[in-house]
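no rush on this but wanted to send it before i forget. theres a chain ive been looking at and ive put its sequence and its fold in token form underneath. please have a look and point out which stretches look like helix strand or loop to you. thanks a lot i owe you, the record is right below:
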Amino acid sequence: MLAVLLGRDTERAALEALIERVRAGMSQVIVLRGEAGIGKTALLDAVADAGADLRVLRVAGVEAEAEFPFAALHRLLVPHVRDLDGLPATQHQALSVAFGLTDGPPADRFLVSLAVLSLLARTADRGPVLCCIDDTQWLDRESLNVLAFVARRVHAEGIGLVFTVRTGTDDVAALEGLPVLLVEGLPHGDALELLRTVVDGVIDPKVAGQIVTATRGNPLAITDLSASLTGNQLAGALLLPEPLPVGSRLEAHYLQQVHRFAAQTQRWLLVAAAEPQGDIGYITAAAADLGVRPEAADEAERARLITLGAEIRFRHPLVRSAVYGGATSSDRRQAHQALAAATSRGADADRRAWHRACAALQPDEEVAADLVLAAGRAANRGGYAARATFLTRAAELTPDERARAGRLLAAADAAFTSGAPTQAHLLLGSIDPDLLDPTGQGDRLMLRARTIVALGAERGMAQVSATCLAAYEAFRVDDPDLARAALLGAIDGSMASEYLIEGTDLRQISAAVTGRSNRGETLTDLLLDAFAVSVVDVADAVPLIRRATTWLATGEVSDPTLLTHYLTGVTLCTRIWDDRTREAILHRTAAVARRTGALQVLEIALFALATHETTLGRLETADELLLEVHQLRSAVASTPYMWEVFRSPEQIGWRCVPDAEAHIGRARTAANWLGMGASAGLADLGSIILDLGRGNYAAAAATGVGLVEDDYAGAYARVLPDLIEAAVYAEDRDRAAHALATLDGRATTSGTPWARGLLERSRALLAPDSSAEALFQSAIATLRDTAAVGDTARAHLLYGEWLRRQRRRKDARGPLRTALTMFEELGAPAFAERARQELLATGETARKRNPETAGDLTPQEAAIAALARDGLTNPEIAERLFISTSTVDYHLRKVFRKLGVESRRQLGRVL
């Protein structure tokens, strides 16, 4: 049979190529997808045999085991658990907790994923590794998510992953985007050959053709159908049954076989089907409790439906599902009740609790409480998907309706933490809020706010602030700490939604903050007060903002507090042009998020850091950060619109990429759909930068006016210098003067060198000729001492342009040459071309800069090269980019070859 299966040229060629690639030290992933019985497992057997010289790790999903966290992953990696000691400390701890090898706080699911990637890569250092994962649709969700994460990040480690997935299953969305090989029925000739192989007697050619056609070449259907037909039917002497038991009826065919067995055999098979790990001891004990002797299994074994050994194995998962699904609910409950009594080992307490739950017919608080304990044990290992399942079933069995509502809420929270916001949303919708106490009502609202954002729901972000305010009202009397957290959530929601906010507004949020009770001197209190005061007058809020943000940047702040509060601090820094504190907070947050595996926080922090670097004009650093963001985005998953808002429109504007307007337009559309006004504002900023670089001053001014006139509590103060430049060049001096008056107040309030330099540059554009030059020179001197290289370059450009308009062409060449060089080094082609044209107008020839060799690097190669240049080791780079050390080494070798260097020390010279 195996030889016939390997006759499938497409599958064979793809799997042979995978084996050869892995042998050569590279990595590859294939998902084999096909209907039940089509031969996926046989192909997996074949690839394992062909790769026998590799380190082959195998695991198969078991439907009854799908609720136990990390169960499949543990079975896959058991041979290499001893290698955990070689992992980074945080990864070692995370995987040890997930596998129940040690106690500790629940690990972030992404940190577990990084640990598995590192473990497999270390194993591959001793020889290529082939992971064969069968029946992926029945893996527990934690194991599936980890393996999907790994599959997206292997490259040059010598790791192969082959998954098999049954067509029509919806539980494998985590594998979406991986290479898929559809496994279809055998070609007609091969199917006939298989049929002749499995039939001992004579088979009529017409009957053979009917069987092959009816089964569509499905090997399992051919084998089992031919075995169920009589010799006369196969020889053509008797008609074949109609319809033939194939396709979707294959499970029914197995059930018919089972129903022909003695009652004792059927009951023994049901017990075996209900035991998730095929534990022979538990099955035997449970069957005995039901009055069934071990010999009852003999009939099923002779029929080759099961294999007896250290554990019970069914011929095919369809046999197990046929046995279990075909039994009456009463018989299933009896089987689970017997298994619950037989499952005696302490390590199997969760399995015992699940058997008891499956045996329950009516609400039963004792059984429900047992499930709650199992849910707690799952959470302690980081198994939040299992916790959600246990708690959902516990709620179903809970007699008291208020306790039931509380357990559903806890299940929703666990589902959200596990990365299943849709499940969390559905569970939240099943809760009657009136059955919750005030704290529970507040928790439900806060979880709802997080869920609608994670789902990427239409206008979801716009609804967050109002939802958090409602949560605040629920928490206000009984839990001041949670009330303050809800207010902070409302503030963060308002900062993200800006003008798109729904159901409330800034003044309502500010009034709630000002009127809160139990005011203290915590970091949360400082941030709340800073926000409330800034809504009325930013100048009055500056001392509060500086205290709070300095605390975040340099003070004693716990990891959870920093990860919860950083975004509020960053936004407040932006409003007062405090680039240094903003940068310190973001770097500190990114470091904590990396260490703790909080990848969703890390993604947002890195994007904010990339936006910060772009605003300063440090575009190459922003590129490197955006590459990390996109690596993370593929890990945490998202909707297409959520991808678009992480494209950095401002970076696109500076880079002036092909079809820049279309890219920025898509980002703006996505932001508006999601209710993310701040992201829509970033798109407008991208348009302004793009238009200023190209000299489309009227368009830039119009966009700037739209942002500034609807300014959201000072959020767009940094647009004012752009608006002034655009309005002056568009000959709308009145508009420019109005913007300058606003800028004067904002920049003076800020007092940072960056703000003062931009104010001086903007004043110079509107100043009389007698004083403009001194202002330009002062602006350049002030900005030169800041990190804002983009604004410094633009100050040189504007000064040079002013000098040329004063007919001082010779004097203009110096600042224009400086501007051109700086823009070329930044990678801002539109602004560089604007400077070049001005130089030409002075009579000086300015040739375009030749592309550097470094431009031949891919984005990932450039990011790795930059990190190596900055002194990071290969393991440190691997942790930063969520790839393996082998992949870093592979790309660095390519970088060295492309750049013509031989060591890391030489990278600084060419990058």
